[in-house]
Q: What sequence folds into this?
């Protein structure tokens, strides 16, 4: 009984012809899936923001915002550095925690 199953399986596997897509069809299908994938939200937002930089009002607002942010961060860092220098001038072995 086992031999007849083995022979049946052997004949079945020998007669089986797998249907594989051609490399061109596989490549075309892969690119089609890539093209229909939705764009990530961050990339979409970045693309819109960059397209708006061509408008003078939006570009000016971005530059002004960056300037204010840079000045704020710079002033905070400067104040911290001045405070560290002052503490060290009073006691050079003091470590600010």
A:
């Amino acid at each position: 009984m086992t031999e007849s199953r083995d022979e049946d399986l052997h004949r079945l596997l020998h007669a089986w012809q797998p249907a594989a897509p051609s490399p061109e069809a596989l490549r075309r299908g892969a690119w089609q899936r890539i093209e229909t994938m939705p764009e990530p939200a961050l990339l979409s937002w970045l693309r819109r923001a960059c397209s708006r930089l061509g408008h003078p009002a939006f570009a000016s607002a971005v530059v002004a915002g960056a300037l204010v942010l840079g000045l704020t961060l710079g002033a905070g860092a400067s104040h911290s550095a001045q405070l560290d220098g002052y503490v060290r001038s009073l006691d050079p072995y003091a470590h600010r925690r």
User: Anything to note?
Assistant: The mean pLDDT is 83. The radius of gyration is 34 Å. Residues 8 and 86 are 92 Å apart (CA to CA). Residues 56-90 form the longest helix (35 residues).
